Amino acid sequence: MWLFLTRRFRTWVLLTFIVPLASGLLRKLGQTLERRNGPTSVSNGLLKAGALGDRTRDRLRGGRKRR
Known about the structure:
Blueprint: H1 7-37, H2 41-60
Helix pairs in contact: 1-2
């Protein structure tokens, strides 16, 4: 079905739905692992990946840079 959609529409769907869902899922998974086992490199990596998705989404929406 992806074949019949235009490239621009596929990009819009990815950036609007899939990327925010994936970053939220990574963040929740990282938080769950951190609660169970304490901070590990895996949980920290998942939390950073979730935060990266949030920062990117905020920047694309026109938000300010956070330091």
